[in-house]
Amino acid sequence: MKDKLIIFDTTLRDGEQSPGASMTKEEKVRIARQLEKMKVDVIEAGFPAASPGDFDAVSSVAQAVRESTVCGLARAIENDIRRAGEALKPARSGRIHTFIATSPIHMEKKLRMAPEMVLEQAVKAVKWAGEYTDNIEFSPEDAGRSDLDFLCRILEAVIKAGAKTLNIPDTVGYSMPEQYGALIRNLRERIPNSDKAIFSVHCHNDLGLAVANSLSAVMNGARQVECTINGLGERAGNAALEEIVMAVRTRQDYFHCDTGIDATQIVQASRLVSGITGFAVQPNKAIVGINAFAHESGIHQDGVLKSRETYEIMRAEDVGWSANKLVLGKHSGRNAFRTRLSELGIELSEEALNAAFARFKDLADKKHDIFDEDIQAIVSDEAFDSAEYYKLLFLKVCSETGETPSATVKILDGGIEREGHAEGSGPVDAAFRAIESIAKSESELQLYSVNNITSGTDAQGEVTVRLQKDGRIVNGQGADTDIVVASAKAYIGALNRLKAGLERLNPQL
Ligand code: KIV
Ligand code: ZN
Fold first, then answer.
1. Which of 83, 213, 230, 272 has a 20 to 30 Å separation from 247 between CA atoms?
2. What is the pLDDT of residues 401-415, one digit of tens each?
3. Which residue's alpha carbon is nearest to atom 8 within ligand 1?
């Protein structure tokens, strides 16, 4: 029997710390449901003490998820731990994850605490957590740059205090794979009560080594990996869940453990996270990039046709890639639409379902073939539109060789219809300026990206717009067969988020 490798997903916590990736409560619940469907063992849902919104989101995820353990993060501070304990009350299985920094630079410069005080605080934190649950995880933050002797002492003490999982973060992504593997091995060998806890790893990708470091730790006895969908996360991100899971699964000859993940849900999870956060997946990204299974060279194609294994170490369908399936058409009814949504793991309120169905009918009038990806885009439009202050009513753009492009828009502005007109360097620029002439948000455009959702010139374009104002960063998304309309929708979606204050300034206090 192989050991179980526990998959701890932190897309909703560390992933959300990517600038611009903040999620609403509803979005977090949708992602959590998909993670549960994928059989993720532990879902870190947020940082309850960070804000009332995050508390509420963790609590909602705890209520919605039944099969996976739901975890809340807390600094080693009494109030943080009590907030996490309260937020997790609805969970069928809850975990409190508490952390305090242990590297000399963090203790001296950030915490301004002597190592003995840090040790004492860590033990207290684990004991406070023990008032709520037996399922306690402790992280010595910046372990990758901490002193080994001190790590051994603090970890031995927190195990005695009741910690069941010891997570060893490479917080700044500084470690090298061999070194990090040796750290895990040394800790396991040197801590007298190490057999009473599961060793976990949490690697950041600053040097592109998060997955390599995590796997090296697994080879040295770590039995939990903390990771995120698409490798989302603070700065350069965390280890990508899909890469960890598929490396271990594909190389069963090498690893002494396996995960319980349903890998066929991976692509769906990747799309959902990318759609909600607006973080596009690079085409050559392992496992979930659009080109991950595409063979372009003639030699490769010939080989694959003769025998798949010549160039393929995994099968695309095993991670959830399917040939673009024609799922619905112009004549499909509301029930068929609802059924397909539920097959895709999407649940909508009656009101949102009606609105999404109306969009589907509009799209079916313009586009002959409707694919799963189109449906997902319709629904993410719906989710983004949930806080509508501005609504696009009308858009006209004039673009002609030799002439300056111009745009006219009509927008519902808090219930009042207003019209704006502007010129720009291109039709999209003109449309944004026309919208801005009404909204006067004075925000800064940080990102504008267009992806085609399916292939063909009749495909919908999916646009992501990221705006920044006074340190707050928001995303908006829009999809349409007309990319200028999709762009205007995305811009308005982002303005709505700015208006509604849906984003937090800084999720990690
Ligand atoms: O990177 C890190 O150290 C963290 C901890 C809170 C586990 O995210
Ligand atoms: Zn982290």
1. 272
2. 999 999 999 999 999
3. 14
